[in-house]
Write a structure and sequence with these properties.
Blueprint: E1 2-7, H1 33-37, H2 39-58, E2 63-66, H3 70-73, H4 75-83, E3 87-90, H5 104-122, E4 129-130, H6 141-147, E5 152-156, H7 161-164, E6 187-191, H8 197-200, H9 214-231, E7 237-241, H10 243-246, H11 251-265, H12 273-278
Parallel strand pairs: 1-2, 1-7, 2-3, 4-5, 5-6
Helix pairs in contact: 2-11, 9-11
């Protein structure tokens, strides 16, 4: 099962800064400052339409982990994904790095805001899944999510300290890797820090932490996905893409990645997180 998922929705994609802007440290000299300032807008006007068209052409269902605030400022665009048959799951309120939230009370408020906005917009299609920005949770998170009707959570399977140590250079305060919080009741979708476009692709091509150009980065992703599907077709393989990366500078490589997986395994191999974990 191939689970191609998406994170970050337009101007709610702020990497924890709360202002809908990218950290200036992300800009490479080869990327015009004006382009960096408009990455979120490009995600909405260029990246998402490209991706939606490709997904429709290939009949691939996906899960979009969307900030709750996006339902307030981009309701038409969020609804477009849901109306196309894709699952909308929750990704914080304004992309707060989740493990950095200092109190249970603040986290309760943010989840409440996100779920209220999504429920008002989507009704019965409101989120039942949650992916914390940063892929890690706090000891009290599961209890809060259950109270708000969340049925599954998408978190990093295992993190090494070296990964967390790379974020300060981007202007992002990131907690130590620390110990994983055990999940006792919710269904769990494991993800890998290293199976994302943000990790694989160099900033010159729109990524965050990677060293490869877009073609090389998505060749690596294709090989990982194809090898997994050939050997473990009944187990989900989860990839995390971002429209501001894979719909912009890395678009052609991303489209080729989808086309190749589809050509080998067909539409039926692709599943949403909800269908894998909850069966619906």
């Amino acid at each position: 099962m191939l689970c191609v998922t998406f994170d970050n929705f337009g101007c709610a994609a702020d990497y924890g800064h709360g202002q809908g802007r990218m950290p200036p440290q992300m800009r490479e000299a080869t990327i015009p400052e004006s382009e960096l300032e408009n990455y979120n807008l490009l995600s909405l006007t260029l990246g998402q339409p490209r991706i939606l068209k490709a997904l429709e052409r290939l009949r691939i269902p996906t899960t979009f982990y969307t900030e709750g605030f996006a339902a307030v400022i981009h309701p038409i665009e969020v609804k477009r994904w849901a109306d196309a048959g894709h699952e909308i799951a929750l990704h914080g309120w304004k992309h707060e790095i989740w493990q950095s939230i200092a109190s249970k009370e603040k986290e309760e408020r943010l989840i409440g805001l996100g779920m209220a906005a999504m429920t008002e917009l989507l009704g019965n299609a409101a989120p039942v899944g949650f992916r914390p920005p940063g892929f890690k949770i706090n000891p009290w998170t599961e209890e809060i999510l259950e109270r708000h009707g969340i049925k599954y959570i998408s978190v990093v399977d295992k993190r090494d300290q070296g990964f967390a140590d790379r974020f300060p250079d981007l202007g992002i305060k990131y907690p130590d890797a620390g110990a994983d919080v055990p999940i006792k009741h919710l269904k769990r979708q494991p993800v890998s820090d290293y199976q994302t476009d943000a990790y694989l692709i160099d900033r010159r091509y729109g990524g965050l932490l990677g060293k490869a150009d877009a073609d090389t980065g998505y060749e690596i992703a294709y090989q990982l996905g194809a090898e997994h599907e050939r050997s473990k077709p009944n187990e989900p393989w989860v990839f995390v893409a971002h429209p501001l990366i894979s719909g912009n500078r890395a678009w052609h490589a991303f489209e080729k990645f989808l086309d190749r997986l589809h050509a080998e395994f067909g539409s039926s191999a692709f599943r949403t997180a909800r269908s894998v974990l909850l069966g619906n």
